[in-house]
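Hi everyone, sorry if this is the wrong subforum. Our group has a chain we'd like a structural model of before ordering constructs, and none of us has done structure prediction before. Sequence below.
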Amino acid sequence: MNRLILCDFDGTVSLRDMGYLILTQFSSGGWERIDRQFCEGKIGSKEAYSRIAKILKANEEDILNFVRAHSEIDPYFKDFYKYCREKSIDVKIISDGFDFYIKPILEQYHLSEIPFYSNGTHFLGGEEMSVSFPHLNEECGLCGTCKKKLVQIHRKLYDSILFIGNGLSDRCAAQEADFVFAKDSLYPYCIDREITCHYFHDFHDILADLKKIIRGVIFDLDGTLIEAYEAIYLGLKEALQHFRKEIFPFNDLKQYLKVDLETTLSPFFTPGELETAVSMMRRKYEEVYLNKTHLLDGSREVLEDLHALGILLGVASNKLGRFSRGALTHLGVAKYFKSIIGAGDVLRNKPFPDMIHTVLKEMGLTSEEVIFVGDTLSDIETGKKAGVDVYALATGFLSNKELSKGKPKRILKNLKELTQLINPLSFLHPPVS
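Answer:
Right subforum, don't worry. Here is the predicted structure as tokens:
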């Protein structure tokens, strides 16, 4: 299987946007208006660069000295590149920046063998330079380097293409690639357009994903695998009626649910009432929850498929432990789980990491070998505190956009994606050599 990773440069490989640094250091003024028009989408990078070339005032030697003095690449990029070479995954850089600083930076870090595509420059002598656009898409003509076109060209040579980027010039390539690692402004762009992506902070994250082999999946329960909101509402209604408090409509339940039962109830009851209210709600919930709980669409099939693949399964839920185990037993799927941990089973509930740590111990796996699947920002926070990758799912009350604020590793389109991720032939999980 021929695999290729195409990678942006400025702000991705290079921690600093070198083009921006050079512009602020050597321009004769007036670049702010050009930059503003570019950011607002009024002009493309080709037009912006053509104008900027006219106001840059520096000779080649001064610019190159400045580049070498201010270059800084991601500290994990070299390890990432080494791993890709060992696994026969080609890496190429595609940049809407310029060759005159990309080339010396790669040389400075002993990475000159990496092929790169960028806009061209020619120093004319004195303090003048001209620019060229060898990878322009004539049909569009906006970007100096059309990354979408470069992805399409490489399609003829590779079975699978992964793209890594962070900004405006990366959007078209993200739409064209098979998979995307995104950060900064590219991440919300991908989320808004439902482009499959993993969030990354640095190349350490990407390297960990390339190496990762998933051996276990830990699930949140309510809103992720099951739907029990009617039972929750009936329990809350019972407590409110007992204390003669106003009852809100079921459709408003979303705005009141918090990370655990006590936090959910506290706005409605005084400290003296709270203990009784919790007890009453749980009593009513226990009466109705088995008949008012059902598996979300696709949950049973996914659990069966993952179990058949030999993946260990666990649950970490703020639902009371005995209710969690009771619901899964009633629904006929408890047999698939190695560990089911709920409130009362550990010292602290989510968002503390105790539950996940306990599940990991009972599964006999490390945090690097599992993913945690949940539907709330609290789930994302919990997974990060526990050191596990979090895959969010918009099957609860939050949208993809709302979930993206927590920057989970991935936002799943549906649960069925999990079985595809664990396929050993996928890009992120190449066969172990």
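For your construct planning: The domain at 3-211 is CATH 3.40.50.1000 (Rossmann fold). The chain has a mean pLDDT of 92.
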